# Entry
Amino acid sequence: MKINVMTTDEQIIKLDVDPNESVENVKALLEVETRVPILQQQLLYYGKEMGNSQKLSELGVNDEDLVTMVSNAASRNDLGINPDGSAVNPGAFQQHFRNDANLMGQLFQTDPELAQAVIGNDLNRLQDILRLRHQQGSEMRRKRDEELALLYADPFDVEAQRKIEAAIRQQGIDENWAAALEHNPEAFARVVMLYVDMEVNGVPLKAFVDSGAQSTIISKSCAERCGLLRLLDQRYKGIAHGVGQSEILGRIHVASIKIGNIFYPCSFLVLDSPNMEFLFGLDMLRKHQCIIDLKENVLRVGGGEVSVPFLQEKDIPSRFLGDERYSEQPSSSGAPVTSGTTIKSDNAPQGGQSSGGAGGGKGQDSDFEAKVAKLVELGFGREAVIQALKLFNGNEEQAAGFLFGG
# Structure
């Protein structure tokens, strides 16, 4: 059949086309006739835009019908890219991709995350991903340029040899990292600390089990909630020395704790440490012949007379999670409570308790910086690493895979 195409300068172009021809192919014919690139063409049929993937028969185009071609060359600036990689006009950029089914199909294959942002409604996220892709591309080009420079470097240049050595070392690290991802992926997962349900003086608590802590620890606020603060022996006041220091308020010599269905006597050191609630340390683990059974994921007490399961991540209060960030926040005395800390009770009576410990994990900030440093060592730019980690909510494995894929 024949169709008539009216251009912006009101010229009529007659085209002989098949009814099942796609609009994109019609645009290709018009590009030959008018020298207007396909990307600058917009075809209208009865005032409605014709999609590239649609067929003429689907749109109801018949023999001798009139189609209007509008040149959107002026709008090409809207599809431009800023120096930081973001779109000049994110709305126009998004619509350009949405209008081209073939382009969207390619985008879903090559970059699913960007494709999801294009079909989504959050233009800020789209801009963030475009900036991140730009940074990744710049970093990859920089690395490629450095590698090319090393190929032609003076073999007697000490600095060049140092860089070559660093590149070889980095290659070994990358290969080791890739092997770990393939054969030992669980090593990149977060390890949740060991918590069990206990009752202290009848009050249910989530107890942190830490065999690296010398003594069982309870915070002042937790002791008060359990009604034990009245038993505090302040003669055992002192200072916990470790990474910084924390104040020991005293000692509670004996109180009942319930594990499973059995009650056990327990003694505690009371610390002025708001970032830690209750820690079941090595002293009580030894006293009650406890076994940390990681195969069955249970804590066995009394040589096995009681078994209580370690809590799953979903059962642990959120304030204890977040990479155990609360366990490394400074106490009121400025000391984080960390596993293996030696506690010295400077004012304890002779023969009294003189040492103990507390447990914890990494702080949020320090853990995030550690992830950043690890990925930067793999050769990625710091800004790209930070954005990737934020994009995947701090998941180091996903961020690394994303950076390597970029």
In short: The chain has a mean pLDDT of 79. The first helix runs from residue 23 to 34. The first strand starts at residue 2 and ends at 6.
